[in-house]
Amino acid sequence: MVKVIEASGVKKHYQRGPETVRALDGVDFGISSGEMAAIVGPSGSGKTTLMNLISCLDSPTSGMLEIAGQDVTGFSESQLIEIRRKNIGFIFQRPHLIPTLTARENVELPFIFSKQKMNGDVISQKLDVVGLRGRNHIQVRMLSGGDMQRVAIARALVLNPKVLIADEPTARFSTRVRIGMTELFRQLVRSGLAVFIATHDLDLAGSCDRMIHLQDGVIVPKEMSSLYA
Amino acid sequence: MKLLMIAFKNLKRRKLRSLFTIGGVAIAVAVLVSLLGFSAGYKKALTNDIDKMGYQVLVTAKGCPYEAATLMLKGGGGLRYMEQDVYNGIVSDERIDKATPQLIHTVYDPDRLDGRGGFALYVGIMKSHLELKPWTKFKSGKWFTKDDADEVIMGFEAAELEQRSVGDKIFIPGIEKILTVVGIFERTGTQDDGVIFLPLKSAQQLFDLKDKISGIGIKLKNIEELGQFEEDMYEVPGTQVISMAQVKGTFLNLVSSAKVLVTSVAIIAVFVAAIGVVNTILMSVFERTQEIGVMKAIGASKLDIFRLIWMETILVCTLGGIAGNIGALLGGSIVERVVKGLLPYAPEGQIVLITPTALLTSLIGAIILGLVAGIYPAYRASSMRPIEAIRSGE
C-alpha cells in the first residue's frame, strides 16, 4: 500500500478583520492506495478547508502536505494544477456537468484541459466502470440525477488519478442511488484507487475503511465528536 | 472535441439571448459594410456620370454654378438660359477640341407613369452631341432628318418607360405638338437614358426659346489649358464656367459631410453592440460560476478558462459579422433606394457598391470587437477561485 496523501501538522489560518480564523490547526493523517477514508464532522469543523488543501485548490499556512510523494507546500498555482491533473479526481455534491455536451464529451474535458492526446478506449472504459455503457452519446441533461453523478465520477477517473476526492457525493440522492454509489466507490477502491470522502452521510462514512473525525480544525477521537453527542 | 466546440455549444444554451446579441453585432456590421460600400460606390458612380457627360467644362448662364451643374447632370426645370451666340462665339477657339450646345426643358405630362403624372425631360441637341459622347449608339433608327424636324430620339429608358419604338408619334401636352420617334439610343448607364432628345432648333421653336441654350459642354484639346480657358471665359458677359472636376469635388465634399454623420452613427452602433456582447458574456459567466469552478477543479488553468470565454465572445462577434455581411448583401438594394431618395444628387448606377474589401474589413472589425469585448468577461471567469465558485450556488 503506497501512501497517496500524507499530512503532517497542516494548518490553515485566515485573517477575517482583526480575528484569525483557525480553520485547520495542526492536522496529521495519511491515506494509502486501495483505502477508502471518510472525513466527518459538523458544519464549520474544517472539512471543506481540508478538502481544498488535499485537492491542491489551496495551500496550507504551515505544515507538510505530500500528494503522491511530492511535498506541495509552497507550490505555485501552475504546479498545483499539474499535481491536480496527474493525481486527483474530484466529485462534488452536484455533478456540475456541462449540459450542452454528451456524457462522453463531459468525460473528455480533463483530456482537453491537460492537453493530453484523447484516448477513446479509456473514456469508454471509464463510462463502462460507472455503469453507463451504451449511454455515451446522450446529452447529459437527459440523464437522471444519479446517472449524471456517475458521469461526473467517470470524468474524475478518466486521467487515472491516484486519489478520488468526493465532497458530499451522496447528499442530494435517494437511498437507492446512495447504495449504488457506495458500491461503486468500494469497487474503485478494490482496483487500487484511494478514495477520500467528506460527508454527513453516516451510512456512507460507515462503509469506509476509516473515519476521520474533525472538530474545530483538529482531528478528534470518535467519542469526542459532536456528531455523536 | 476542442475548446472551440465547447464554446460554440455554450452559446446554444440560451439561444434567444445569443441570437439577440449576434443580431446587435450584425446590425452594426451591416451599417459599416453599407457605409464602406457607399464610400466606394458613390465616388465611382459620380465619376462615371461626369466622365460620360463627355465634357470637362460647362458654360452656363450666370447663376449658382452647382445648381446649374446638377441640372445639366440629372436634368430638370429652372435653368437660366443664355444666347446661342455665346456658342457661336467660342466654338472657333483653337483650344477647344469639341463643343456642343444644349437646351434643356421639362414638360409635365399628366398621363405619364400610368396616369400618376410626371415630368418628361426634353433636351435640344446638335450633331456635335454624338462627337462628345462617342459611346452613344443607336439601338434602332437614326439621326434627325433635318435641323428643325419635328422628330425625337429617345433615350433607352425613356423609350422603355413609354413603350415606344421608331415610327411612333408622341404628343407633348400643353404645347399640343406631335413629334415622330426617329431613333432610340442604346443604354449608356447615364442620365441620358431617361431623356427625349430633339433637334436644338426644334426645341427652341417648340418651347418658345428662340436662340436660347441652357449650356455648352466643352472638351479641350489640352486639359492643362483649363485654368487659362476658364479665366478667358469670365470675360464673356452673362456666363459662368464650371469645371466638371470641381463639380465632382464639391459633390464628394457634400457627401463626405453626410458620411461623417453616418460614420458617427455606425461607431455608436458598434459601441452599443460591444456593450451588448460584454453584458451577454458576463451574464453567461455569472450563470456558470459553479461550472467554471468545476472546470478549474478538474484541471483547467486560468488560461484555459480565459481562452474558453474569449472564444465565446469572438464566436458571437464573428457570427454577427457574417450575418451582418449577408444582411448588407441582401439589403444592399433597399439601402441603395433609400440613400438615392435622400441625396440631393444621386448618380446613375450602383452607389452602394459592396466590395469584397468592405466585407472583409467589416468581418475583421467584428473579430477585433470580439477580441476586445471578451477581455473583461474572460478575465472575470479566469480569476474565479474554484471552491468558492463551486460553493456559490449550494
* Average pLDDT of chain B: 85
Largest interface: A-B, 31 and 27 residues
How would you classify the helix and strand content of chain A by structural class?
Answer: alpha/beta
Q: Which stretches of chain B are low in confidence, meaning pLDDT under 50 for 5 or more residues running? A: none
What is the CATH T-level topology of the domain at 3-93 and 162-228 in chain A? Rossmann fold
Instruction: Give the oligomeric state of the chains in this entry, treating copies of one chain as homo and distinct chains as hetero.
Output: heterodimer
Précis, in short:
The complex is a heterodimer of chains A (229) and B (394). Chain A is 33% helix and 28% strand. With 229 residues, chain A is of the alpha/beta class.
Give a description of the structure.
- The complex is a heterodimer of chains A (229) and B (394).
- In chain A, a hairpin with a 2-residue loop joins strand 4 and strand 5 (70-71).
- Chain A has a domain at 3-93 and 162-228: Rossmann fold.
- Helices cover 33% and strands 28% of the residues of chain A.
- In chain A, helix 3 runs parallel beside helix 5 (145-157) and helix 4 (120-129) packs across helix 5 (145-157).
- With 229 residues, chain A is of the alpha/beta class.
- In chain B, 55% of the residues lie in helices and 17% in strands.
- Chain B has 14 helices and twelve strands.
- Chain B has helices spanning 3-11, 15-51, 65-74, 84-90, 128-132, 156-162, 200-206, 226-233, 244-287, 289-297, 302-342, 356-373, 375-382, 386-391, and strands at 57-61, 82-83, 96-109, 118-125, 138-141, 151-154, 169-172, 177-185, 196-199, 212-213, 215-220, 239-243.
- In chain B, strand 3 (96-109) and strand 4 form a beta hairpin.
- In chain B, helix 2 (15-51) packs antiparallel against helix 9 (244-287) and helix 9 (244-287) runs parallel beside helix 13 (375-382).
- The longest helix of chain B has 44 residues, at 244-287.
- Chain B is elongated.
- The model of chain B has no long low-confidence stretch (mean pLDDT 85).
- At the A-B interface, helix 1, helix 2 and helix 3 of A face helix 1, helix 10 and helix 14 of B.
